[in-house]
Specification:
Helix 6 (107-119) packs across helix 10 and helix 8 packs parallel to helix 9 (252-264). The chain has helices at 34-40, 52-57, 66-69, 86-89, 92-95, 107-119, 192-201, 222-235, 252-264, 274-285, 301-313, 332-337, 361-376, 393-403, 415-427; strands spanning 2-7, 16-21, 24-28, 76-80, 103-105, 128-130, 135-140, 145-153, 160-167, 170-175, 203-209, 243-247, 268-272, 295-298, 318-322, 350-354, 380-382, 407-411, 443-446. It folds into two domains: 2-218 and 389-446, Ribonuclease Z/Hydroxyacylglutathione hydrolase-like (Metallo-beta-lactamase, Chain A, 4-Layer Sandwich), CATH 3.60.15.10; 222-382, Rossmann fold, CATH 3.40.50. A hairpin with an 8-residue loop joins strand 1 and strand 2 (16-21). Helices cover 33% and strands 22% of the residues. The chain is built from 15 helices and 19 strands. The chain has 447 residues and is of the alpha/beta class. Bound molecules: zinc ion (ZN). Zinc ion is lined by residues 83, 85, 155, 177.
Amino acid sequence: MEIHTVGGFSEVGKNMTVVKTGDDAIVIDAGVHLPAVIELQEEEEQYVAPTEKRLRSVGALPDDLILDKLGLRDKVRAILLGHAHLDHIGAIPYMGYRYKAPVVGTPFTIAVLKKIMEDNQIKIPNKIHSVKPNSSFTIRGKKRNYQAEFINITHSTIQTAMVALHTPEGVVLYSSDFKFDNNPIVGLPPNYDALKRIAKKGVKALIVNSLYSGDERKTPSEKIARALVEEVLLTVNNKKSAIFVSTFSSHIARLKSIVDFSKKLNREVYVIGRSMNKYISAANEIGMCPFRKDIQIGSYKKQVLSILKKVSKDRENSLVVCTGHQGEPGSILDRLARNKLPFQFKPNDNIIFSSKTIPVPISMANKEQMDKRLKKTGARLFDNVHVSGHCGREDIRDLLTLINPENIIPFHGSMQQLIPLVELAKEMGFRTGKECHLMQDGQRLKL
Ligand SMILES: [Zn+2]
């Protein structure tokens, strides 16, 4: 068995791993590098999808050209997707066509992928399959078949899966973004039984997320985030003022909490922004958007303008959920801050960030500039009304204890993120270079 680390082993983003076994290769995830994409973003209304060439030139796509050098491209029998975030699926519209292989993911992941392609007017020739969480897909190899199991796990978007690839040479468990959350608000809790069963069978290689492996914590449940949202919405004295909330468009559970408490305030809920519409529609299509009937969505320019004019006249009876929590240029909140939309913030209006600024220079700079503009209006800013969807060091320790794999391959980060995980593994008896393998993009590990 060989594991090829294509992307996400030298940076946070553009995740892509290839497992080669026998005459077959299986791709897991193909994402984009988000900071590079944010830099490319135009204003939402003039958005034009970038080309593959342009994305490659700024390093936004995983460098899968190495697969050609290794003669692996024609051996790829399936592309498996773990969850709906762009750093895991965003490269498929641009690179999928290069593989004669089906693309497989849970219904929400696939619905989001289809929306992205529709939105960018991109078509790929690959067959696309949805697999329910906690079920399997059969991959047809050259001489033998393989089972890919999509084990339900919790994260900041619904229907996230750990992917267990069963091969004659052993199980590869791809554990990318996750936390152990027994109260996820929307969707299923982690499937501990499946993880225990796989551990009993024996895991040859565990590819594991290192992003916050240096943070000594267990990441709290989404129910804590729900309580934080409740606290700000229901206890702050904001009766006559406008309320705007910004959060991750893909965070269906968080959106549900925001809508639930807005209803308690007897406010009309308007959700605006193109990406909000994309993820909410995808969730609704698969029957996982319990709040759809309680909101009005504005996606296109005309709808957004008309909603904001309405809200401007009826501030105390409205609540707006919008894009822009990272200060992304062209997002709704950014355009509001620049006075480019028909709504002006006044002193004591409330702007709630149910999010955390991603600690990369471009996001931090964008957010800081936007905050400065927003504060000038006299509005109140509530930052970090949020709980992460990513495992901390103690969640990872629990996973390593539960799975007890033969080999560990940390990913989802640069050295800064990978090394704390290597140290944790060492502390738990996995020797560096023997059982725990520190890899970079574009390398091969033979097991
Ligand atoms: Zn994610």
